[in-house]
Amino acid sequence: MNNFTMATYFYQKAKTTADAQQLNSETYSAINTGLAKVYLNLNNFKMAGYYLNLAEKNYKRLTPYKQFVFANIKADYYYSTKNYQKALNWYIKASKLSKTFKLMAYTGITECNLGEIYLLLNKTDSAKIYLDKAYILIPKISNNENITFYINGLYAELALKENNLKRAKELLFKHYDLSRISRQNIYHHTKRLESFYEKKGDFSKAYFYSKQVNHLSDSLNKRITSNVILEFDSRYSAETSHLKQDLIISKSKAELQTTRLISILSISALIIGIITIFIIISNSRRKRDSRFTRQVTTITKLRMENVRNRISPHVLYNILNTVIPTFKHDDNLVHLFRILVQSLRNNLIISDKMTVTLEDEMEFVKNYIEFRKKANNSRIEVNWIISPDVPLDTLIISMIIQIPVENSFKYAFEDEQDDAQVDINISTDNNVLYIIIVDNGIGFNQGKQIGDKNSTGIGLKIIFQTIELLNRRNQEKIFFNIEDIKNFSPDMHGTKTTINIPLKYNFEL
Predict the structure, then answer these.
(1) CATH 3.30.565.10: does it fit domain 282-502?
(2) Which strands, in side-by-side order, build the sheet including 432-439?
(3) Collapsing DSSP states into helix, strand and coil, what is residue 454?
(4) Cβ-contact 347, 311 below 8 angstroms
(5) By the 8 A CB rule, do 440 and 484 touch?
(6) Domain chopping of the chain, boundaries
(7) Beta pairing partners, 482
(8) 4-239 is classed CATH 1.25.40.10
(9) Kindly report the CA angle at 493 between 492 and 496, in degrees rounded to 5?
(10) What is the structure's pLDDT at 310?
(11) Which of 144, 191, 221, 311 is 20 to 30 A removed from 276 (C-alpha atoms)?
């Protein structure tokens, strides 16, 4: 319908949906091919070439039919930019592919295209061969008057190049219902009439048709210009709306996180007050111990949730500050958002749990590491050394690996350290899970963390308190220790975190 503004809108909408659904490369190729076709119709050859290059990356993985569609549009691109030899090469590819479908419609179209290209290259013998093939197929596949007009026009062009004016006149003056003929075909037909009268020596009529050609050319250009303006305006409005929407979402999320934090702090303060009152008024040691156990459990869970909720906004803040300035230019934008979605999903899953499986904790840590590397161009090398006999479904305290790794990324390394490295070694022996986290940074400096308002020091305190509470109910204890490597090896530097968890440990409080 030549409504290129709406075509662009829906292709871009399709692209957004494909991003959200994480669809395959074949889908993106189809969308990019369609966008190339739209911009080709708008004579925006730069954008058409850009989307064709994107689509061509997956060309070999496409089905023969989709390769045929792409080859035709690629050939049309070179045809429009007057690179007829490259157009010929792609039309030949399309012709070969059309043979695999055994449908005359595709073959007829490609033979027609080849005939026109050979005409433009002044190879009239080859042009006639392909036009004759198309002429046999076209009537069998279509009663479309526009197609008949188009192929007869090409025969007229051939006759003019061969100076066969009698044949040219016969073809050019056939009767057609011009209301059914496209403007582009009428434009070419008028140019042929101009050429016909020039060759005949009737310059008065040649001049008349020359003016008609100019008029049609202006009309086509105005139409294209109008569509270009509409398409640009639509694209600008869409991008502005998306940007405003993203900013509103960011602001809303920040306000929501602030509200949640205030609520958690208020509830925590209220519960602490209740605990204090209950301890004071308790007369029975049995009741006091029972209340103490229940209340400590509640506090621990709330504190763990507080740490998780603190980390979520902090991660989100970093991501938004990294992504929004590069909204239109960062090729890794989609991948960064996928890391964000996965991190937030993991955060929500563990938000009400004191324990997670080793596998889930590892996934959360890997997502965090990948984000820090992508967002901050971090050169820290992380090595996972995991024994094959480690049971990945083993329960551990949530964030017991995350927090030491986060501390290494935030505090362990100076900016100029090129060999920054963190090793995470996980193994089992004698029914105990051993986790050792070692970095080669400046060493453990607790005072530096305390001075940082975004420090994970609170998280470490809660992990220690949680371990202390859990160890009271278990004969085999969890061991958690952080030490400066220089304390026991003066020639080395860095921080070592040691975690030992019995495989049959009871996490029930």
Answers:
(1) yes
(2) 381-386, 421-429, 432-439, 495-502, 479-484
(3) coil
(4) yes
(5) no
(6) 4-239, 282-502
(7) 497
(8) yes
(9) 105
(10) 47
(11) 311
